[in-house]
Amino acid sequence: MIYSGNLVQHQGRRIAIVVSRFNEIITEQLLKGAQSTLTMHGVQPENISVFWVPGAFEIPMVAKKLAATQAFDGIVTLGAVIKGDTAHYDLVINAAANGVANVSLTTDIPIVFGVVTTDTLEQAQHRAGAKAGNKGMEVTMSLLEVLSLYDEIATIG
């Protein structure tokens, strides 16, 4: 057998979105992309909960707390980290990426990583929908595919 997730309608799904307030000019656009993707695929607006955090570093801890509630079928994480002149950039993106991956692997809740990492504000704007697609939309589609695959896996055996 071959199994593959798809973008079937997802009525009844409960989705949490954890979004960084830092670089809000970018993260607001990522959030809009995620929300529109969810509603386009049948998730009711009342089943989408948005949790604002100060920055990308705080995303994993809030995602972990949300996963522990078991109130959500999946979690989207969104942020924007733009490189500065210090090593702080590397520390923040590594902590955020590793933290989200750890939470996703240690819970039964699929969590997708939508933190845009760029060298410039212009690059971040492109990835938030200006020229290079909307990464919030892209990672949310990945979440919906994984949820569909989880449903298929549950029927095995």
UniProtKB/TrEMBL annotation:
Any Gene Ontology biological process: riboflavin biosynthetic process
Location of the active site: H88 (proton donor)
Keyword tRNA-binding in record: no
Amino acids binding (2S)-2-hydroxy-3-oxobutyl phosphate: D85, T86, R127
Gene3D superfamilies in UniProt: Lumazine/riboflavin synthase (3.40.50.960)
Pathway(s) this gene product operates in, as recorded in its UniProt entry: Cofactor biosynthesis; riboflavin biosynthesis; riboflavin from 2-hydroxy-3-oxobutyl phosphate and 5-amino-6-(D-ribitylamino)uracil: step 1/2
Record-listed E.C. numbers: 2.5.1.78
GO MF annotations in UniProt: 6,7-dimethyl-8-ribityllumazine synthase activity
One Pfam family named in its UniProt record: DMRL_synthase
Record flagged with keyword Nucleus: no
Family per record: Belongs to the DMRL synthase family.
The protein, known as: 6,7-dimethyl-8-ribityllumazine synthase
Source organism (scientific name): Leuconostoc holzapfelii
